[in-house]
Amino acid sequence: MQVCMLIYEPKDQTAKRHDPAEAPAYWGAWTAYAAAVRASGLMVGGNGLEASPTATTLRIGAGGRQVQDGPYADTREQLGGYFVLEVPDLETALDWASRCPVFPGGAVEIRPVMPPPAA
């Protein structure tokens, strides 16, 4: 089964990405984690995402198209990236999620990927 691991980071952790003093350790941990997931043979894909303030949210309602700068909701955590894994079961996904360098303080949401619709 394919799962998407959505990585949520606290804002202070995301800020480390661009802090000259903290960026090497931050990126080193993520590079090592991504390399381990890749080496496991389970990784289908994934990417880091730019910080939430760079997001644009679209809604379409009776008044037409509404475009909002920023994410849907203002929260203490930001969606920082994702991995798509091909795993045999949820327990394997939880095991890989538990190794994620977002902890402590962050969260990993694991969601099954929907199969493509039948033709």
TrEMBL record:
SUPFAM superfamilies: Dimeric alpha+beta barrel (SSF54909). It comes from the Bacteria. Signal peptide: none annotated. Residues 1-115 form the YCII-related domain. InterPro entries: Dimeric_a/b-barrel, YCII. Pfam families: YCII (PF03795). Belongs to the YciI family. This is YCII-related domain-containing protein.
